[in-house]
Amino acid sequence: MRKPKLLKMAGGVIVVLAGLLWMASRAGYWLVIDHPEKSDVIVVLDGDATDGRYWQGIDMLRKGYGKEVLIDAMDDQLKYGKTSAQSEEEFIHESAGALEPHVAVCPIRAWSTAEETRFVDKCLQKFRPKRVLIVTSDYHTRRALSVFRHELPQYEWSVSASHDTTEYGRRWWTHRQWAKRFLDEWEKTLWWNAVDRWRSRP
Predict the structure, then answer these.
(1) SS3 letters across 132-172
(2) H helix intervals, the chain
(3) Which of 60, 71, 93, 128 is the most exposed place for a label (fewest CB within 10 A)?
(4) Cα separation, 136 vs 144, whole angstroms
(5) Which of 72, 78, 81 is nearest to 104 (CA)?
(6) Whole-model pTM?
(7) Are 49 and 74 within 8 A, CB to CB?
(8) Which domains can be identified in the chain, with CATH numbers?
């Protein structure tokens, strides 16, 4: 009598483990949302001169997904005598070509996506947009969209994913860097949903 029960228990454990492994394999896909919609302004989150996010934002502008592009960049720390915002402005001048009048830097002083929303809001007010398209790294899209919708509900948000295979892939368990990025982003996503989104803002 014991053997059938043990076999049944072992079968149940195997089914549960298989389910957990399947969920873990799909979790990398769940982080990514890539559903851009035509908008008034495109906001590239913390894009710098070597970041694929910048080029993704420029590409979305060319495709008519927005009329203006704002590139977030830090303006409170110097590197080689310049802030990231100053370096970004120079790079825009060198790279944007005919689109340069429609591309601008949004200076930020933020170390989290939630803090970033306050600076983005100030930059957006100049354009009085109704719809805003976020461009960010693929692994960051779900959390970024959730944060911006929560913190700035006066705008209609959508998101475009910038892919960089040196940073992340949806089959996260196949590369060490992807796995590190996956775990870090899931930790931040859980923290946002469990704690940060319920905090009152100044």
Answers:
(1) EEEEEEHHHHHHHHHHHHHHCCCCEEEEEEECCCCCCCCCH
(2) 2-30, 52-62, 84-95, 113-124, 141-151, 176-194
(3) 128
(4) 8
(5) 72
(6) 0.85
(7) no
(8) 34-198 (3.40.50.620)
